[in-house]
Amino acid sequence: MPDVPEDDTSLEDMSISETMDKPNPHNGSNNWAVSGEKSYSGHPILANDPHLSLNLPSIWFVMQLATPEHNSFGATLPGALGIISGYNTHISWGETNATRDVLDWYKIEFKDNTRKKYKHDGKWKKTTQRIEELKVRNGTTLYDTIIYTHHGPVTYDHNFKGDNPKAGYAMQWVGHISGNNQRTFLKFNEGKNYEDYLNALKSYTAPAQNFVFASTEGDIALWIQGLFPNKWNGQGKFLLDGSNPKHDWQSFIPQEFNAHTKNPERGFVSSANQHPVDPSYPFYVFNDGYETYRNRTINDFFRAKDKFNIQDFKDLQNNNYNLKASELLPHMFANMDTSSLTVNETKILTIIKNWDFYTEIDQLAPSIWESWWTKLFQIVWDEFDADSSKMDKPFTYQTIYMLKNHPDNELMDIVNTPEKETANDLFLISFKETAEELTEWKAKHGDYNWSAYKGTFVGHLLQALPAFSRFDLPVGGDYNTVNATSKNHGPSWKMIVEMTSPPTGYGIYPGGQSGNPGSKYYDNLIDSWAAGDYINLLFIQDQNDTKGIMASQTLTPKK
Amino acid sequence: MKKTLINFIVTLLIAIILSQFLPWWHVMVAGFVSALFFSLSRTAVFYIPFLAIFLFWIVYAFWLSNANDFILVQKIAVLLPLGGSSILLLLITGLIGGLAAGVSALLGKQCSLLIKR
Predict the structure, then answer these.
(1) Longest Cα pair distance anywhere in chain B, in angstroms?
(2) A473 φ, ψ to 5°?
(3) Using an 8 Å Cβ cutoff, are A294 and A480 in contact?
(4) Over the stretch A171-196, which tens digit does the pLDDT of each residue have?
(5) Could you tell me if A29 and A317 are in contact, meaning their C-beta atoms sit under 8 angstroms apart?
(6) Complex ipTM
(7) To 5 degrees, how large is the angle CA A80–CA A86–CA A89?
(8) Percent of chain A scored above 90 by pLDDT?
(9) CA-to-CA distance for A196 and A198, rounded, in angstroms?
(10) Do A517 and B72 touch (CB under 8 A)?
(11) Whole-number Å distance between alpha carbons of A294 and A99
(12) β-strands A85-88, A91-97: how paired?
């Protein structure tokens, strides 16, 4: 890890009114694999479920790719070469996002308004310009000049959310560095063993992924693969000084030092977008947000017993245990002053007090929890809304930590009330608001059981056109359960593979194989997906085998 | 009576043939041409081509919908919105086609009168 430089310069200042949109914070995934010793059959079992927006036509397309030499099966994305999450005759693979801060912002000071030169290392260095041509349908073409520094493109400036023509923020991002991410997947498709998997990983740069692996030979592994800058402690956590060479990215973490595990003693590997390493890892690791609940439910599940079968895997992917609620609610019940509750409020409190923390569709308690938590989070951090500059609110885990351990902290106060509130007051205030909201909801829509209150839908890409979308799906879970299904986001492909020879696969996704709304295969898998069912995947071994074939098409290239 | 039948059949035939090459307005060409050469009188000028195309489009739409088990027609009947009634959608389809053919037949009739003068 490089040394932390001292602050020594002050630059031309710029303030920005707002920040660019970020990816959906619920984008995440689960994957895991158990070794032969922990498997009911002696064969490793692997699972993967990527969580994305629930859309129609489906994001994923399931296919088998067979040549005389190779045979692979699984889910892929339009435009990708080969199977992205799947298996072949010998190995299986799947991904989760290895969320990591590989995008840094550099404060740039220009010499003058022409922005031809910027300050770096005590000198004025030349910028480069690139003119982007944006063709507008039935309109005049728009030309946009992008200014590049050696850090990357200047993104915020006086033309975009900024206010100073002599300053800007340049974006340095691993995604701007060329690599070959496609090769990794092509090599997975033809891989035969752990060595091939390892070799395939090396060319992969961004966005970093946790690549889970299992083979018929009996190996399981998990590598966090991506190109990671070797940062000094805290580098890029805040705005960096673009004029200070010590703030430049110094080098990259050598690929062989990316965190990984092969055939660990505990007999399983897993990832769910959590913090990836412990303090013994010698490089600086940071991200603005790690998953803090799903990963613990998964690891607890695999620590709980010795052998796991396919049904256990299905149960875990469909697991709706709300660890987050289970870590806060008992504390709230114990510390909330209930003396002022009305009869109706007491009734609602009794319902949630009897909850077993399973976020199931027919329960009222998950709706109470969801409403209560949302309102509580809002009033805990009202200071952030009151402040005029753009600030991200603290994360869920830290919020719950504060509520439980620092109930009298000054941030617990609601700024626009004369009283001085504590965390325990906030519990009561937000609970009363929740009771009011749900009572109104009930008067309007009927019972607020979780299925109705959440209203999960799979929406057509064109603003969820009603006829081309599916609404009010009876599916449990929320964004912090292993079955991470929220209103319009969730497991976009669920796969389980047992490494028999050839492998035996099970899969499902919220959609269908056709993108044509007039086809019955447009959305025919949605109901099974919502019910937590799987399809036995037909991994055809002989191309002359016609069992289960519904239609075939031969494409003959023009000579 | 005979003239009516000829106009009906000619409108239908022209529409079916042209539907292979032209967009929706082939029905207007059919209505116009048949009125030009097989002129009818009074309200029949309008309602014979109207009836021909009304039936043609309903049958044609039914045939297309049948190919996907009426899945798409039901969805479009939600989008329009017709409360998901595919029968209503088929009827409206016929009505629009029929109106287009009938109106252009009126034009064809006027033109034929001009030529005769």
Answers:
(1) 53
(2) -80, 135
(3) yes
(4) 999 999 988 999 999 999 999 999 99
(5) no
(6) 0.75
(7) 115
(8) 79
(9) 5
(10) yes
(11) 15
(12) antiparallel
- Of the candidates B45, B61, B63, B48, the one whose C-alpha atom is nearest the C-alpha of residue B106 is B45
Contact A59, A492 (CB under 8 A): yes
A27 close to A97: Cβ distance less than 8 angstroms: yes
Q: Do B71 and A517 touch (CB under 8 A)?
A: yes
Roughly how many angstroms between the first and final C-alpha of chain B, as a whole number? 25
3-state helix, strand, coil in chain B (%, to 5): 80, 0, 20
pTM, to two decimals? 0.90
Give the one of B68, B69, B78 whose C-beta lies nearest to A467's C-beta. B78
What is the torsional sign of CA A225, A228, A230, A232? Answer: negative
Nearest-Cα distance to chain B for A471, in Å, is 14
3-state secondary structure of A184: helix
CB contacts, 8 Å: B76 with chain A: 467
Q: How far apart are CA A113 and CA A99, in angstroms?
A: 37
DSSP of A282-332, one letter per residue?
-S----S----SHHHHHHHHHHS-S-B-HHHHHHHHT--B-HHHHHHHHHH
d(CA A361, CA A160): 44
Contact between residue A557 and residue A87 where contact means Cβ atoms under 8 Å apart: no
What φ, ψ does residue A27 adopt, rounded to 5°? -60, 120
Tell me the residues of A at the B interface, defined by beta carbons under 8 Å apart.
Answer: 465-468, 517-520, 522
The answer to whether the bond into A25 is cis (omega within 30° of 0) is: no
- Angle, alpha carbons A176-A181-A182 (nearest 5°): 135
How many other C-beta atoms are found inside a 10 Å radius of the C-beta of residue A310?
18
For A482-502, how does the pLDDT look when each residue is reduced to its tens digit (9 = 90+)? Answer: 999 999 999 999 999 999 999
Contacting residues for A63 by C-beta, under 8 A, at least 6 apart:
A73, A74, A76, A83
Q: Which residues 6+ apart lie within 8 Å of B76 measured at CB?
A: A467, B89
**Nearest-CA neighbor of A287 among A277, A298, A300, A297?**
A277
